[in-house]
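User: Here's a chain of 186 residues. Predict its fold as tokens.
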Amino acid sequence: MSRFIISGAPGSGKSALLTALKQKGYFCLDNDIDLLIQEQSQLMRGIFPWTNMRYFAQSCLGRMWKTHERSTKHNQIVFFNQSIPDLMAYLRSEQIPIIPIYLDTYHNCHFYPVMFLCPISNTTFPEENLAQAYTVQEMLHLEELIKDTYTQLGFEIVSLTSGNPQKSLMQVIDKICMIEDEIQSD
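Assistant: Prediction complete.
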């Protein structure tokens, strides 16, 4: 079983791509970050990434580990909507040191070292509530930090077509087929 990460800044099309992958029969897991934001918005003093990244990231880390653990019960390709390297990029965006538990938890996850990036473009206008907390320039900066973080961790980054979930879907499927062919020929 191979585990792949779909990444990108808020509003870049990750959810739309994951929906398209699910419709093609792939197993996809969401880290429930949007759910965490919804839960926090119901609290008087909720924790949000744009107000307290350090504590928000800590809350996300536990959820991401649980999501990873759910993936081990499936003997098929699994796609994740972001993962621990994304948290590290968000922390870097706020110049918050990455404490060892992030790397330790990441190293226990065993992802296939290919990340599919849903890029933000200058013509992308996100509609998600989370994306509205960031300017386009901030999202472009975050995207660069996401790419840099994954690159430092040894990932190949496959940059998908911006704003076109169906074309991105075909790019992901083509790459997965290439990877499966490589694995079978080894």
